[in-house]
């Protein structure tokens, strides 16, 4: 049985949803009533018996540290192995404007000392912008069986040109060997394509050599400086995943994929109903939600600790949300400790944590442009 380490990139896609990452990492974005995005990447690893996991941070990582803690909620609080939060390495004399990383390769270069001490057979890498429930053991076994240098997880989907421009398109031959790739093509690419899920497995020795080579030659891009020049020299392969996944590329897609959980039972089952592959998160042991007399709740996900005295329909409420008398919340996502007053109407609204909406307010967005309220704001 091959041994494996895990590496999670927590900040790589922060610019995709700037509204939600001004004060947190991509990994810390709440999703689906009680989860954070890192819960899916971390649970995938834990469910595949990967218990030595490093999380590479960039900035705004306080909420990530608060959420992950010692890792006990994922059963990886250990003296040997467990979870490690790797903060940026910057010397006293570093040029601050160039010190922080902008790509996966630069991120790995910033933790080269830690990386050089890995002794596992393979390393599993995962970003935090893709939500899925994948059996990584199958992918690792496929990687080992084919003696691959890197194996990329891909999924076949139907793409428009606009959707293709947000993805890494990969083409493999009948044996599964990667023969061509297009990184975020601006035009001319559409139809049924294999897109990279931002999850890949690499042989530990190979990736250590890649990072040392990148440091020596000043390489910065994994796609341009590693995959492209070595496409015909190294054994790069693809592993096809056919389960549910969601790629969060904008506030609109964040809203849409949360709403999918409400409106499609197959999606809920594909993500949370996999036998022996639960999705773990931090347990807070809050009080049960209190439903006031005369309130109505339809087709919604309600976390614990809420107080509902109005009407909630087709919405997602995180922990500690309070909905006032005669207030209607429709098609909305309210983050932790949001408070609404009385006689409020919300439609297609996303509130960040600790937002306050005073009495008699009427706020409405659209599913293509949800109305967003920043963390701690009062309206």
Provide the CATH topology of the largest domain.
Spore Coat Polysaccharide Biosynthesis Protein SpsA, Chain A
CATH superfamily of the largest domain: Spore Coat Polysaccharide Biosynthesis Protein SpsA, Chain A
Radius of gyration: 22 Å
Helix content: 10-25%
**Any low-confidence stretches, pLDDT <50, length ≥5?**
91-98
Number of helices, counting only DSSP H or I runs of 4 residues or more: 12
Classify the secondary structure makeup into a structural class: alpha/beta
**Structural domain count:** 2
Summed over residues and divided by their number, the pLDDT gives a mean of: 92
CATH first level of the largest domain: Alpha Beta
Summarize the biggest pleated sheet: 9 strands, mixed
Which strand-content bin applies to the residues? Answer: 25-35%
**CATH architectural group of the largest domain:** Alpha-Beta Complex
Number of strands: 28
Backbone shape = globular
| Distance, first to last CA | 56 Å
Any overview of this molecule?
The chain is α/β, with parallel strands linked by helices and 379 residues long. The chain has two domains: 4-272, Alpha-Beta Complex (Spore Coat Polysaccharide Biosynthesis Protein SpsA, Chain A); 290-373, 3 Solenoid (UDP N-Acetylglucosamine Acyltransferase, domain 1), CATH 2.160.10. It has twelve helices and 28 strands. The chain has helices at 18-21, 37-47, 62-68, 96-99, 104-110, 112-116, 136-145, 161-164, 204-217, 222-227, 251-263, 265-272; strands at residues 4-9, 30-31, 35-36, 52-56, 82-86, 122-126, 130-132, 150-159, 168-172, 178-183, 191-203, 236-240, 245-247, 290-291, 296-298, 301-302, 307-308, 311-313, 316-317, 322-323, 328-330, 333-334, 339-340, 345-347, 349-351, 356-357, 362-364, 371-373. The strands form seven sheets. Strands 1, 4, 5, 6, 8, 9, 10, 11 and 12 form a nine-stranded mixed sheet that branches. A five-stranded parallel sheet has the order 15-18-21-24-27, with no helix packed on it. A five-stranded parallel sheet has the order 16-19-22-25-28. A hairpin with a 5-residue loop joins strand 9 (168-172) and strand 10. It is globular and about 65 Å long. The model is unreliable at 91-98 (pLDDT under 50).
């Amino acid at each position: 049985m091959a041994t494996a380490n895990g590496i999670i990139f927590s900040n790589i896609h922060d610019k995709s949803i700037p509204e939600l990452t001004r004060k947190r990492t991509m990994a810390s974005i709440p999703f689906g009533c009680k989860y954070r995005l890192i819960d899916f990447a971390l649970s995938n690893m834990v469910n595949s018996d990967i218990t030595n996991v490093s999380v590479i941070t960039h900035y705004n990582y306080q909420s990530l540290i608060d959420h992950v803690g010692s890792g006990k909620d994922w059963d990886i609080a250990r003296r040997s192995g467990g979870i490690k939060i790797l903060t940026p390495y910057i010397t006293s004399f570093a040029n601050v404007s160039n010190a922080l990383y902008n790509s996966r390769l630069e991120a790995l270069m910033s933790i080269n000392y830690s990386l050089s001490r890995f002794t596992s057979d393979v390393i599993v890498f995962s970003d935090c912008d893709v939500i899925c429930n994948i059996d990584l053991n199958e992918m690792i076994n496929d990687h080992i069986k084919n003696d691959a240098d890197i194996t990329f997880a891909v999924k076949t989907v139907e793409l428009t040109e606009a959707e293709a421009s947000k993805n890494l398109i990969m083409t493999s031959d009948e044996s599964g060997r990667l023969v061509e790739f297009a990184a975020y093509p601006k035009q001319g690419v559409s139809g049924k394509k294999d897109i990279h899920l931002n999850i890949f497995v690499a042989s530990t020795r190979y990736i250590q050599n890649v990072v040392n080579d990148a440091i020596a030659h000043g390489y910065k891009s994994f796609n341009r400086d590693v995959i492209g020049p070595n496409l015909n020299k190294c054994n790069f392969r693809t592993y096809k995943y056919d389960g549910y996944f969601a790629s969060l590329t904008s506030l609109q897609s964040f809203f849409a994929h949360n709403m999918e959980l409400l409106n499609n039972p197959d999606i809920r089952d594909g993500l949370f109903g996999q036998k022996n592959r639960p999705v773990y998160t931090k347990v807070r042991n809050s009080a049960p939600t209190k439903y006031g007399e005369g309130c109505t709740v339809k087709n919604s996900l309600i976390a614990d600790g809420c107080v509902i005295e109005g009407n909630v329909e087709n919405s997602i409420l995180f922990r500690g949300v309070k909905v006032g008398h005669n207030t209607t919340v429709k098609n909305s996502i309210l983050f932790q400790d949001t408070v609404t007053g009385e006689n409020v109407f919300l439609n297609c609204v996303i509130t960040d944590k600790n937002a306050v909406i005073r009495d008699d307010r009427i706020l409405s967005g659209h599913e293509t442009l949800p109305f967003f309220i920043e963390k701690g704001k009062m309206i």
